[in-house]
Design a protein that fits this description.
439 residues, mainly beta, Immunoglobulin-like, Methylamine Dehydrogenase, Chain H, four-stranded mixed β-sheet, elongated
């Protein structure tokens, strides 16, 4: 007896084995041709329904942990059916997808989906997703005596003091009106420090210029630069911060690199050795934001906690001591901080710059743009912020202390304009909600 397929496009027969080739009705025929003693047998047929095969999506490449607004990433995936996979954004307000390219369009959590709709022979595959965090780019920055503005077209304007070349125009001439940095394009974020400036380009590379006496430009030298120079071998950066004489960079994988002055441990590498090139901060991962004070550094983790290190004479590290920290320490009790709500700053330059000795810097930060009812938190704000404390201490006065020994009073629910770098004068304050507003 021999078996054959009456529908070779649907199924095939080899010996007594039937193989499905496509979805549909498969017809199998059985024949016996007879011999000298027997007539041929009547053909017998049987129909078998062959259904669509299942398929899956595999090898969907992971997105970077972090992306910058305006930054892009490449998507890739395969299906077990070898049919093409399509991509889409489940969060179009945060990221968009065109073909295999994902682009960050706003801060938040970006979710990308991979789909395969199936065809005549395969069922649709189960959707697979990947996620990343899109960070907002810094478009304005202020150094000690100079200012930086990033335009939508990726060019950069600078103005102010230029005695160390911090304006990047190839001169040391002070500019009282904004001027463009020649040849600088494709920039997606800027940062400014005491006397040096940083630019992050769309390809994740970093440029720096200005004073470089402590290696804060990261180019391996201590030569001041009046025009932008690339930080060698450095890619995948999504955020930058500049301290007085050190620099901090956040990479897309959540790790942090530092370089420059390190006398008080502001690089977080466990030493006080000045670094002329970027080096990773040991053990720091899962970071979503960075900030730099005059001589200390802060990182915000993806779980909402904050770690800090460096100069701590005024308690800027926030660990309850005034001991300088050479390695990262957690700020105790500080959780639920959102990206963009951690800022470190210095309100005055070291006295050594004006003929004195020592530092006159508050090294403050504000944390927790809001807190839950009944929670205790320490609220610190920046010069010019509007601090609105709602139902604080059941309507009692809230006394704030300014950087110039001035006190300010604010009633519950009443906005107070701050005229100096301020903090709660002592201890912690129990509040229902705190809102820090930009006037």
């Amino acid at each position: 007896m021999s078996l054959s397929s009456g529908t070779p496009g649907i199924c095939s027969v080899s010996g007594n084995t039937v193989s499905g080739l496509a979805a549909g009705a498969c017809s199998i025929s059985a024949n016996q041709a007879g011999n000298a003693s027997y007539n041929a047998a009547a053909q017998v047929t049987q129909s078998i329904s062959i259904g669509k095969a299942d398929q899956g999506i595999g090898a969907l490449g992971a997105l970077p942990a972090l992306m910058l607004k305006g930054g892009t990433g490449t998507l890739s995936a395969t299906s077990s059916s070898a049919l093409a996979v399509s991509f889409s954004s489940a969060t179009p307000g945060v990221c968009t997808v065109s073909g295999s390219t994902v682009t960050g369009v706003g801060p938040g959590s970006c979710v990308v989906a991979a789909d395969q709709a199936g065809d005549a022979n395969y069922n649709p595959a189960l959707q697979v997703t990947r996620s990343t965090t899109v960070l907002a780019a810094a478009t304005l920055a202020a150094g000690y005596r100079h200012s930086v503005a990033l335009k939508p077209d990726g060019t950069v304007l600078f103005w102010g003091s230029n005695d160390y070349g911090q304006l990047g125009d190839g001169t040391t001439t002070t500019r009282v009106r904004p001027v463009a940095v020649p040849g600088l394009t494709g920039v997606v974020a800027v940062a400014a420090a005491n006397f040096h400036t940083l630019a992050l380009k769309s390809d994740g590379t970093v440029l720096a210029w200005g004073t470089n006496e402590s290696g804060q430009l990261g180019d391996g030298t201590t030569t001041n630069r009046t025009s932008p120079v690339a930080v060698p071998g450095f890619t995948g950066v999504v955020a930058l911060a500049g301290g007085a004489y050190h620099t901090v960079a956040l990479k897309s994988d959540g790790t942090v690199l530092t370089w420059g002055f390190n006398a008080t441990g502001q690089q977080g590498d466990g030493t006080t050795v000045t670094r002329l090139s970027p080096a990773a901060v040991p053990g720091v991962t899962g970071t979503v934001a960075v900030a730099a004070g005059s001589a200390h550094t802060l990182v915000l983790k993806s779980d909402g906690t904050v770690s800090a290190w460096g100069y701590n004479y005024f308690g800027g590290v926030g660990d309850g001591t005034t001991t300088n920290r050479l390695s990262p320490v957690a700020v105790p009790g500080l959780t639920g901080v959102v990206s963009g709500a951690v800022v470190a700053f210095f309100n005055r330059a070291p006295r050594s710059m004006i003929g004195g000795t020592g530092y006159d810097s508050l090294n403050l930060a504000y944390a927790a743009a809001s807190s839950s009812a009944g929670a205790s938190t320490t609220i610190m704000a920046l010069d010019g912020d509007l601090l609105e404390i709602l139902n604080a201490n059941l309507g009692k006065y809230v006394i704030l202390q300014g950087g110039y020994n001035e006190d300010y009073l604010g009633r519950s629910g009443m906005p107070t304009l701050l005229r100096g770098p301020l903090s709660i004068r002592s201890g912690k304050l129990t509040v229902d909600r705190v809102v820090i507003k930009k006037p």
